[in-house]
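To close the chapter, one final illustration. This time we ask the reader to focus less on the individual chains and more on the assembly as a whole: which components sit near each other, and how the overall shape emerges from the parts.
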Amino acid sequence: MSKPPGQAGAMEANGLVSAHAQGSGLQQVPQLSPGGGGKATPPSKQGKKSAPLERNTDEYRMRRERNNMAVKKSRLKSKQKAQDTLQRVNQLKEENERLEAKIKLLTKELSVLKDLFLEHAHNLADNVQPPSSTGTTESAATTIQDGAGQ
Amino acid sequence: MSKPPGQAGAMEANGLVSAHAQGSGLQQVPQLSPGGGGKATPPSKQGKKSAPLERNTDEYRMRRERNNMAVKKSRLKSKQKAQDTLQRVNQLKEENERLEAKIKLLTKELSVLKDLFLEHAHNLADNVQPPSSTGTTESAATTIQDGAGQ
DNA sequence: CGGGATTGCGCAATTG
DNA sequence: TCAATTGCGCAATCCC
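The assembled structure is written out below.
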């Protein structure tokens, strides 16, 4: 993609190329007919499409020049868009990772809390208490009800 | 946008097109006195890199043809890659949304459980329990982390 | 040195 | 009418 600074190609001094002289062999390319059993002339013909515009006129050169600029511009734009898209992919990938990390964390937290909850429930059910201590044998958890739910 | 499948422009397949006056804007008539005194001869600085290869040889045509195919192939590939990239963006975007939804859900669940815990803690307040926690927030989870590694 | 793959460029037909 | 696109061929490079 990134083209090294080496001047690739483009050495043709694009300036005013006065190519008139082509003795004789120069003229517009004939719309070669589809030969072979191809389609015949497609749609209507409408007389002349437009003057073929001769290649040695200033008009021609002017138009060409303009089109060349437009083409260049268009291509540049296109390339940039592609690059942007590529960048967006990376951006999204990053964000994805971030989100996944977060999910992982949340999941873990949830897991811990749930475990604690379960433990508690068990204690209540069995009327047992966690070995935390010193005595305190009384079950304090009487009030714990689970209303969880959702 | 919709580009009709019709071959636009060049339908010249690769058949024998006698005069190829198009292509590069510059094209001097084939075979012209090379060594003449004119400046027409390209600067031979540094010797000839590679024979300019005359345009009327079979060799030339053959090469051109091959290159044209390669070019076509390369461009096709390029286009497809671009498309893939674009598709990847969409894919990533989707996944992104999915992940975010999940996060939302997990967050909510966590919130609920935490609230529950807070309630219990309140109830337990009467009793003395190993106060390993004043903060009932996530810190607990963070501290306990263990199992499940990934 | 050979030869496919890339890339910049101009041309011409289309499209908008 | 004119700019923007698009397919294509050419030539210079790049890169095995």
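The helical segments of chain B are 58-124, 139-144. The CA atoms of residues 58 and 150 of chain B lie 65 Å apart. With these observations in hand, you are ready for the problems at the end of the chapter.
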